[in-house]
């Protein structure tokens, strides 16, 4: 257990320090940094899902006005490492998915580049493709990059057969696409043997560490700058092929900056997505609802080009008790774009199936769904056997129920009608690991005005600028105005990625450590110019405790029985996330996650056309996310607590937990409203209409 | 985006003449649809004639008690016009249920009528589409058809017309005023858009170079009217199904009788769909929940849903009966309980 920081700024409402610059348009996003004489890139993308680009004829594009260079596999720079199938682009004529980059046109205006790209003749040799995920797919296998082995404890089949109450159901989640407001953008400039990328990323140092060995360049020769990021939701966590393509283009036109903003349509095949999942869940319980059998078999789609498993079974490993357990995770690699991180990968999809299944078990057992979860709350982590840091799921459920007015819920479905709409309430649990990544370094330097605090962290619109300034202020014992924070640049000390809700815990630990070092090396009042470094180490508590956050979602929906329309009326989330560093930005994170959960429940579905192999509703008019009118009443709150196992702030990250379980709460509310159980997301109005 | 020439028209006749003389010229009004198509390669004109300076921006009373709306009146302005709000509330409602505030500020009345289908295959030049390239084939058939037609489609095209406003105008029996190279003509809005047949590339009966200059609304008719849009989210989504309806009930006698009904449907066909069969059932009938369902069923008898949009038949049935119930104050018929579990 580490000593908790004495706090003054931490824990208080602070408006975003970067807010005034953003609303005045003065905060430079990647594409907006001023450049002299830039060039613009437009990509060539495969129009088949499998086969070869047998011949690419660039001549018409090369002759077009404004074109400086046409990049294809015929002339692309060599790569030093081609193991990463997603990033090792332009190696050959082979095509692994529809939309794959086959090249790029570089021209003096974006319009010239786009037009010239359309002039390029590509002759394809098309092979049969397979993009359809199904449970009995012969290519189904254990993931190579999974986070755990199968779990087989006791005898699930016997326990299920003997269970007083059981359910055996199949659930599915669709292809979902991160759509941050700011698309993925990169400006790349090669100057001599140095490469600079102004890009939109969740981690400048991790992106550099990924790109450098592939490009065959020393890390020190690459600089990545990303002070502001217009949303990421995981899609900017790992560098995708767009960043590599722009970097390769810059190699081809040294001395000129090359600008590339991925279009919304291109994002659906280039920048990652949440892979669809199929989840088979069987639960067995005693008459009092306590679990005796827990079987969770999940499959996710993956890509032949590069594996990424959407591990739905992850939360099932630690969520509920039960002696006889079986968890299996499989992937089916198909001829599809490369899936990647999307807010709470694994937990978000897994807590759809599991939390609907728990609702079904509650109905089958005739027990209130909150009480069912209370009765199955384990005392130690079923996965590791370790004690939990603070498992306050029950507190979240009970406190949330009080605040939401759960006692007004009629457990009988289809029992409440208002103005012609059926109304129902649902609940679901939330969970997310509280991890800290080792390796972040902060540098603090005394200046005439105060303290310069430098760390290559990222602010995705989440509040990093603000909360790290609060943290530094308290660590140094000075007002927040004396902190001059620098982030988002590889020229600053190393920082780990803003992903997995680890950013705050990892970076703040480095800052607090650096402040301690500064004091111990230079005393309580360091001279101007004095500086110290501090590095975040792995959290030693992770050896002794299962570190998680928890929460409970409550949703009320209304459904129009004659037209099928389903609308969220109100939603409340109660969370246990350790100390909340900034209630203003934390609330935004939590209700933002919940809103994304609403999209998951009611709107989002990439329509992958199996004939063509690509997502055909690839823009924001056709791929729906919630709009303001869908989110009429949403609120989040948290238990007042500090987590002594979580590091010097006692805080756990809140970037992901808001989405986890949110969709299940809505699905369970829809069942309570209508008696119709929807197990395949999203829930469209069709489900409530007579066939 | 293909390179193209750009001209700004000074007057309507000049704009018509310029476009008529160039087979690949187009008019640019609000640009909310055309500019997307220019970027996507769906439209490849060699000349864009900007008509935004034309003085077609008045809403004027007509001698017969109707209203004339200039083609360049913005959707937001029309929706806020006090005469439209008072006398044609279903038009105001339809306008406000379309797109977003920003788009309505740019979109024009003439352009709204001429917006093209949002069929995803039409908008994606990497997939075949008969509407974009006659003879190429229809990718929607056998594909993603949630937003596609259940009425009046063909083997060549199953696209729908996306406008809300046009559905209201269809129920209102509006007239479109069109200027061509040889003069002005008037077309009933119900005759403006075509069914796809074997020429899906032709959205309307307009000839190349003809320009919509105004819409004319007949004098307001008696009865209650509204516009109801069923969609996958609460705003900024195209209609799965929409209903524009006006019902005039004679309550003077022993039992109430429907004197007249006008119904148009959106989201179900290649054009705003005037529901004449439903109207025929309603005319002279007593307004009851059973009557409303019978009217909806009469219209939907011809429905030919696709695998991806079978739900639209019960959804349209529910929407029609629900709107009629609302307009007449008759209690709505609830569908029988559907407590069966569903697997999509």
Automatic annotation (TrEMBL), chain A:
Gene3D superfamilies according to UniProt: Aldehyde oxidase/xanthine dehydrogenase, a/b hammerhead, Aldehyde oxidase/xanthine dehydrogenase, molybdopterin binding domain
Name of a matching Pfam family: Ald_Xan_dh_C
Keywords: Molybdenum, Oxidoreductase
Signal peptide annotation: none
Regions of compositional bias (Basic and acidic residues) in chain numbering: 134-152
Domain Aldehyde oxidase/xanthine dehydrogenase a/b hammerhead: 24-128
Region entry Disordered, spans: 134-155
PANTHER family on file: ALDEHYDE OXIDASE 1-RELATED, XANTHINE DEHYDROGENASE
UniProt protein name: Xanthine dehydrogenase family protein molybdopterin-binding subunit
Lineage, top ranks: Bacteria, Bacillati, Actinomycetota, Actinomycetes, Micrococcales
Automatic annotation (TrEMBL), chain B:
Limits of the FAD-binding PCMH-type domain: 1-222
PROSITE patterns associated with the record: FAD_PCMH (PS51387)
SUPFAM superfamilies: CO dehydrogenase flavoprotein C-terminal domain-like (SSF55447), FAD-binding/transporter-associated domain-like (SSF56176)
SMART domains per record: CO_deh_flav_C (SM01092)
InterPro entries assigned: CO_DH_flav_C (IPR005107), CO_DH_flav_C_dom_sf (IPR036683), Diverse_Substr_Oxidored (IPR051312), FAD-bd_PCMH (IPR016166), FAD-bd_PCMH-like_sf (IPR036318), FAD-bd_PCMH_sub1 (IPR016167), FAD-bd_PCMH_sub2 (IPR016169), Mopterin_DH_FAD-bd (IPR002346)
Domain of life of the native organism: Bacteria
Keywords for the protein's UniProt record, in alphabetical order: Oxidoreductase
Regions that span the bilayer: none
PANTHER family assigned to the protein according to its UniProt record, in alphabetical order: OXIDOREDUCTASE (PTHR42659:SF1), XANTHINE DEHYDROGENASE SUBUNIT C-RELATED (PTHR42659)
Name used for this protein in its record: Xanthine dehydrogenase family protein subunit M
Highest classification ranks of the organism: Bacteria, Bacillati, Actinomycetota, Actinomycetes, Micrococcales
